[in-house]
Amino acid sequence: MTERPELLLVEDTPALQMVYRAVLKGAGHRVRCAGTADEGLAAFREMRPPVVLLDLMLPDRDGLDLMAEMLTLRPDAAVIVITANGSINKAVEAMRAGAYDFLVKPFDETRFLNAIDNALASVAPEPAVRAAAASTQAPPGDLIGTSPPMQAVYAKIRSVARSMATVFITGESGTGKELCAQAVHELSNRARGPFIALNCGAIPSELLESEVFGHLKGSFTGAISDKIGAAAAADGGTLFLDEICELDPNLQTKLLRFLQTSTIQPVGATRPRKVNVRIVCATNRDPWDAVRRGRFREDLYYRLHVIPIRMPPLRDRGGDILAIARTALVRYSAEEGRRFRDLEPAVEAQMLRLPWPGNVRQLLNVIRNVVVLNDGDRVTLPMLPIDLHHEIERAETAPAGPVAADRPEIALDGLIGRPLAEIERLVIEETIARHGGSVPKAARALDIAPSTIYRKIESWSRRDDPAG
Predict the structure, then answer these.
(1) How far apart are CA 255 and CA 172, in angstroms?
(2) Average pLDDT, the chain
(3) Does residue 424 surpass a pLDDT of 80?
(4) Range(s) of the domain holding residue 105
(5) Are 118 and 77 within 8 A, CB to CB?
(6) Both 153 and 301 in a single domain?
């Protein structure tokens, strides 16, 4: 088993350094810690780590300057910056300067570990890899963004575009699966042929066979003329089957036959005809789960799931959020005759903090709403839709997650007779444990500030350390 690469954590507060280190080690990561910018730079030069966790407020040097020097030494390193709530604009500045992601204190442990996992998955093993690919990093097709998760998508698109292999795109609703399919088509040797998209979930099952394979006049009630189906229309090009897991079971059998023989037989026809089509399909479901539930044929799954591409959710794409927002802002402003050209820093900060459950589609709808209902040079916070403000509020006041069910209760009898300071420590430590080691969640449960817990942890560590 390959050993995980060592991470670098640059954090000047000992208590936070201890907490972050414990969470990382608990998740199986190796980590080296530094308390100052000078120590961090020295460790970076020695380690050349793929991922750096960097507090922007350091005692001896500005974190942005340190990040710039690190990225000069290893441009493909993923730097996750950490900042306090009052310094979000600094985090936005860091994203523009090349940071992979940012975390605002106090942050959720799951968000912390997800950011690291995403960063590790996106970083090339050597700087030369990124340098060699620099000329091909421009987004293909109409895709927008340069984040590491999207760079991985672009690399996959480029590597498979010229083959005939079936591409299976997965991802949450609104992540841009059709744009991905179009990019595959446009980079293929079929780019001059048609790109035909068909949403399998939006067509009634009784009409779906006709939509895919076509029909002849009089083949059924309402067939008043011949119809060329999507498969025939895509001859010489690409057929994109969106929401493939919604396909009617009877049609799944015919689609499998089509994939095996490259022939179609329109409804009412007596002879099949040959077509030359490349299949790209997509779903926002787990396709293997659909197989397990008997809703999707296993043999069709294996026939389609040749080249998988997963579109990342918008919340994992860092600065791409702002790139997409600005591009949409300029385009929609031109369409609507408005003057918008940029976003205020406060708007950028809030956009970067939101979870975006509707992904790119939700972001585009927000920008369209702003442009239609307002005008000006820059988008300001009051211009954002009211439901987005509610979402911001929900994200900031989200309740703590479920407690661990396998931890024993602390009996009240066991606390009687103990010093109050010891009882306080037991309660705080137990609450942190029940919330998966998350100090922010424990703080919300105890109705105290996270900084209070961090200070207490630091004082306990000094008390427990014989050398202290």
Answers:
(1) 24
(2) 83
(3) yes
(4) 6-128
(5) no
(6) yes
Proportion of the chain above pLDDT 90, given as a percent: 32
* Closest among 438, 433, 459 to 450, alpha carbons compared: 438
* Helices marked H in 187-286: 205-213, 230-233, 249-261
We report the CATH number of the domain holding residue 276 as 3.40.50.300
272 and 322 co-located in one domain: no
Number of domains in the chain: 4
Q: How far apart are CA 101 and CA 118, in angstroms?
A: 10
Any bridge partners for residue 283, and if so which?
170
Confidence of residue 126 (pLDDT cuts 50, 70, 90): very low
Q: In whole angstroms, what is the distance from residue 175 CA to residue 152 CA?
A: 15
Could you tell me the maximum CA-CA distance found in the chain, to the nearest angstrom? 92
pTM score: 0.61
Banded pLDDT at 397 (limits 50, 70, 90):
low
Region of poorest pLDDT, from 6-15, 256-265, 284-293, 432-441:
432-441
**CA-closest candidate to residue 316, choices 148, 79, 152:** 148
Domain co-membership, 58 together with 194: no
Flag whether 1 is in a domain.
no
Nearest Cα to Cα of residue 170 among 301, 76, 298, 48: 301
